[in-house]
Amino acid sequence: MEVITASTAGFCFGVKRAVDTVYGQLSGGRVYTYGPIIHNEEVVKDLEKKGVSVLNGPEDIRKAAPGTVVIRAHGVPEEIYECIKSAGHTLVDATCPFVLKIHKIVREAAKRGEYVIIVGDGAHPEIQGIKSCVPDKSTVIADEKEAEFFVKNSPERDERLCIVAQTTYNFNKFKDIVEIFRKNSYYVNVLNTICSATEERQSEAADIADKVDAVIVIGGKNSSNTQKLYEICKSRCADTFYIQTLADMDFDRLKGCLRVGITAGASTPNNIIEEVQKQCRI
Question: More exposed terminus of the chain, fewer Cβ within 10 Å: N or C?
Answer without folding.
Answer: C
